[in-house]
Amino acid sequence: MNDLVPKVEKYDATIVIPTFNRLDKLKLCLDALSMQECPDYRIEVIVVDDGGSDGTLEWVEQRALDFPVRLRGIANQGKGPAAARNTGMRESSSELILNTDDDCKPAPGWVQAMIRFFQTHPDYSGAGGEIIRMRDTLISFYIDSTGCMKQVGEPDDLLFLVTANTGFRKAALESIKGFNERIPIAGGEDYELAYRLRMEGYKMALVPDAVVHHAHHDTLKGLVNMCVRHGKGMYFQKQMGVESVYPNSHDLKQLIVDIRDGVKSQFKQRGGSLKKRVAYSFFHVLRQLGIYHGYNGSECKVSRTD
């Protein structure tokens, strides 16, 4: 009778990628994943289409026919990136969940470095790797200077993780019920998850060899939109009890002080051309305004009852 029961495929790692109407970027991400150097491990890739309309699932189905590892596409009905990552986790066939985004290109050794870290560090349940800009533009350099795409904390004791490049033991994610699906945007859900992991005693570390290249925004519109999302993320984190330093709600005087101090610091720094300092000062103004607007103008509501 046992011979009639289908065997469940087991993998060393599952890569989960949420996406929404960005098939052009997703293609580049999957191309990079197809060149992973991990001959000793079995991996699978799950693309979670969050209600898009650009034919992502149909394309993934065709790409899976000649993809070097198992590739699947799953529909998620527009529930947000947190829910999409949870869907991928639940559908995974491994005990290690690796996260990246559709606008990322993991370096060839990314998967192997992540798997080896967890195999050699059984006391760690989460990890984050280096996130490097994909293009050298003035705005991309500025984004790097803010630290918003960096894993936060000491290398052997990270406080927060950026999901463009993370890995988690599935058991740890399941124990805290995964990403918080009350956060409907791409911004804050990774910090909130890391906070709950730390509160439960789970440890997270940096894996320097696990490198992912990220397509930083390189337009003013993209920069502002990113900062607005970060502001919204701060709003959600505060509502959910994440201990951190938050902006003063609707405090225009403090906003002006923050803008002034940031501009001053740009001109006090040594090195760099006058053009760069002026540009960074302008970007700083946009960033502070974007965060302020997102933090104070969010129309998304957070339920306090669940």
Topology readout:
Elements: E1 13-19, H1 23-33, E2 43-49, H2 56-63, E3 70-75, H3 81-91, E4 96-99, E5 104-106, H4 110-120, E6 126-133, H5 138-146, E7 152-154, E8 157-160, E9 166-169, H6 170-175, H7 189-199, E10 204-214, H8 220-239, H9 252-268, H10 274-297
Parallel strand pairs: 1-2, 1-4, 2-3, 6-10
Antiparallel strand pairs: 4-9, 5-10, 6-9, 7-8
Helix pairs in contact: 8-10, 9-10
Structure notes:
- This protein has 306 residues and is an alpha/beta fold.
- It has two domains: 207 residues, Spore Coat Polysaccharide Biosynthesis Protein SpsA, Chain A (Alpha-Beta Complex), CATH 3.90.550.10; 78 residues.
- Helix content is 42%, strand content 19%.
- The protein has ten helices and ten strands.
- Helix 8 crosses helix 10.
- The termini are far apart.
- The relative contact order is 0.13.
- The N terminus and C terminus are likely disordered.
What share of the residues does DSSP label as strand, in percent? 15-25%
CATH fold name of the largest domain? Spore Coat Polysaccharide Biosynthesis Protein SpsA, Chain A
Please give the order of strands in the largest beta sheet.
Answer: 3-2-1-4-9-6-10-5
Can you tell me the CATH architecture of the largest domain?
A: Alpha-Beta Complex
Distance between the termini: 44 Å
State the fourth-level CATH superfamily of the largest domain: Spore Coat Polysaccharide Biosynthesis Protein SpsA, Chain A
Percentage of residues assigned to helices: 40-55%
Please give the oligomerization state of what you see. Answer: single chain
What is the CATH class designation of the largest domain?
Answer: Alpha Beta
Largest β sheet strand count, sense and barrel closure: 8 strands, mixed
Uncertain spans: 1-7, 302-306
Mean pLDDT: 89
Taken together, the total number of domains comes to 2
Q: List how many beta strands DSSP finds.
A: 10
Rg measurement, Å: 20 Å
- Inertia-based shape: globular
- Counting helices, strands and paired strands, the structural category is alpha/beta
- Discrete helix count: 10
Helix and strand element order: EHEHEHEEHEHEEEHHEHHH
